[in-house]
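Q: I have 153 residues here and want to know how they pack in 3D. Can you give me a structure?
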Amino acid sequence: MTQVDVHGPIDFVLLEFTGDKLTGRAAEEVLRLADNGTIRLFDVMFVGKSPDGEVYAVDLAAEALAEALGVERLAGARSGLLADDDINAAAEAMMPGTLAVMIVYENAWAIPFIAAARESGGEMVATARIPADEVMAALDALERASEPLQPTS
């Protein structure tokens, strides 16, 4: 079996941005992850939701817009995995007056690990994603529980 036969877990994220805070920094980081082989980008799609709730797709092919957002290198990330119904699903999660980006990516870093597991007869049968805020809350709770009790006066 070659690593070409193996894929890493595929993830989907929806990031919502408010106001005029788009600097291109997030785009730079996702491109850095793709350039160094940590991830493989399949799709990047921007969706807007007007203050009155109207949903619209943002065409990154419009060069001036992509340049203004600092995301011109992301404009070509279109595998076809994301479709119009995904825009509608994203819009349901979005607040009015926001812009969001949907990103589908492969965790390419996992390919050698998965290949080694498959060579040993292992097969990935489930994956799950635990949101970072839930992990941090659980770790904070554990830390508080391990702190010595303070005497009360």
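Q: Anything worth noting?
A: The two ends are 68 Å apart (CA to CA). The chain has one domain: 3-126.
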